[in-house]
Amino acid sequence: AAPLKDLASKKGIYIGAALGNGNLADAEFVKILKREFNHITPENSMKWEVTEPSPATFSFGLGDEIVEAALAQKAKLRGHTLVWHSQLAPWVNQATWTKANLTYAIERHIKAVAGYYNNVPLDHWDVVNEVISDSNGLPRDSVFLKTFGSVDAYVELAFRLAKKYAPKSKLYINDYNMEGEAIAKSDALYELTKRLLKKGVPIDGVGAQGHMLVGQVPSNITAVLEKFTKLGVDVAITELDIRATLPFTQDKLDQQGKDYEAVFRACLAVKRCKGITLWGITDKYSWIPGVFPTEGAALVWDENYQPKPAYDGIVRALTTK
Ligand code: G3I
Question: Which ipTM value was assigned to this complex?
Answer without folding.
Answer: 0.94
